[in-house]
Specification:
The protein is of the alpha/beta class. The protein is 20% helix and 35% strand.
């Protein structure tokens, strides 16, 4: 990712659902922000008590070069983490320094059918992916949300079936997402999958696609954004320690 630091400010804050906040950032430093990085990410340098800022990554939901507006949709469940704490308190005019953008990892569109899955942390990237699929795309979308009211509207081809999972305690170990995905029928033809979310769920699904379904790496993107019971640094350490490279 690019290391350019840009200090921007909150243009507006929208409560999309009980547990999802939309932060629209703006400022002159976005004048040279590159286009086409939706579903990529930026890193937020969050203020804190430490000498160095806390760094967290968030998906780019949208970018308007004309308005110089960068849109980030953020899960805001509770108030424990530094990013959630900042998002819950930030209002118009609040400044934040960002770096990026980071790489875009979209679903491979050259397939017979599609499978996308993730929890609320993956909702912005999944939304971007769905909007990029062909109009005649078929397949499944599995989304885990914290409450019924978190079932946000989706723009997607009519041939994709959405499977909602409501899990009010996402930070307790569970297998709801991966169990639902693995119970889906496996259609004929080439599948293209895109999965992101909690570490254990993503790891199990990565193994399932690789070893049980024999899916080619060019048709499979699986990543983790967080880990139950771990900090962001702990999640990254778990990825590095995994015997199967991510």
């Amino acid at each position: 990712m690019t290391k350019v630091e840009r200090t921007v400010s909150v243009e507006r804050r929208e409560q999309l659902s009980p547990n999802m906040i939309r932060m629209v950032l703006t400022g002159e430093p976005l004048a040279d922000f590159p286009e086409g990085f939706e579903s990529g990410y930026v890193k937020l340098l969050l203020p804190g008590v430490a000498a160095k800022p806390t760094v967290r990554s968030y998906t780019i939901r949208a970018f308007s070069p004309e308005a110089r507006e960068l849109t980030l949709d953020m899960v805001a469940h509770g108030d424990a983490g530094p990013a959630t704490s900042w998002a819950n308190r930030a209002g118009p005019g609040t400044e934040i320094t960002i770096t990026g953008p980071g790489a875009v990892k979209k679903i491979n569109p050259d397939a017979d059918w599609f499978l996308l899955a993730g929890d609320m942390s993956a909702f912005p990237a999944i939304s971007v992916n769905l909007e990029s699929l062909p109009a005649d795309a078929e397949g499944h979308v599995v989304l885990e949300v914290i409450s019924e009211a978190d079932k946000l509207a989706l723009e997607l081809p009519g041939g994709l079936k959405v499977h909602w999972i409501v899990n009010p305690e996402p930070e307790s170990p569970n297998t709801m997402l991966e169990d639902t995905v693995m119970a889906l029928p496996w259609s004929d033809g080439m599948a293209s999958v895109w999965v992101a979310g909690e570490f254990s769920a993503s790891r199990r699904l990565r193994q399932y696609f690789r070893h049980e379904r024999g899916l080619d790496k060019d048709y499979m993107y699986v990543s983790c954004y967080w880990k139950v019971g771990a900090t962001d640094e702990g999640m990254k350490a778990a990825k590095r320690a995994d015997p199967e490279p991510w």
